[in-house]
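Posting for a labmate who doesn't have an account.
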Amino acid sequence: MRVRKFALLLVLVGVCLGLLTLQSRGYGSRASDLVAVVTTPLQAGYAKLTRGALGVWTTYLDWKNVRAENRRLRAEVQRLRVEALRVRETDDENRRLRQLLVLQERLPLATLPGEIIAREWGGWVRALTVNRGRADRIARMTAVISPHGLVGRIVDVRPGSAIVQVLTDPASTVGAHVVRTRTPGIVEGEPRGTIRFKYLARAGAGIRVGDVLVSSGQGGLFPRGIPIGRVRAIDDRGSALFNYAALDAAVDFGRVDEVLLVTGPTPQDLTAYFPSGG
């Protein structure tokens, strides 16, 4: 190794002396040209290598910055989505509460607002739990309504809550009549989570799909004139004693969140207070 280093040093010294000799004898320009011929490709290669390395490093930094920016933007988009959902939910809640307040102020009877805090499911909504109970002097069989129509009745009262039997419960029956024809009958729940209208065959002449049904008020349990649903299909059983009509409920029991509990008597017909009931 020492011999090689010494030999390399001698070569470099000899090249330098040769160049100085050529330059002193007037061959400086040619020597410079010779040096340029040798060093230019080396300089060009070095410059190209430097630029390439710098480009790779710059690309890496840009890629790293882009990834960081993408992560930040994704987090920001997620935050904005959550914020938009909150705003939308707040707007929907405010709209529902305004509708409930307007209905409560318009109705000529005593009511108490309540919030649905639980639902009993079994493929469909079987019952609702409202945040009103014994402390609010709520009694069994209290009628429960919403701005869209009749929800059901209180069947169990607890210290801070009560259970609402909805119209789709098979044990639920409500006296009703068709608004257009005044045909009387009974709305009853079905095991599959739907409701139907049961009426005398001879009294059902003229019932059509789309007809609106409201509570009849018979028995004094439910106020008269509260929307129950619309006729979806008619099951004409010919000469049978009773015919049936399948109904679409006026209230979506899976989505109702605020209700009114009827706490006072109501001799009036409430049809006019529910625009959808006419």
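Reply:
Got it, the structure tokens are right above this. The CA atoms of residues 34 and 102 lie 100 Å apart.
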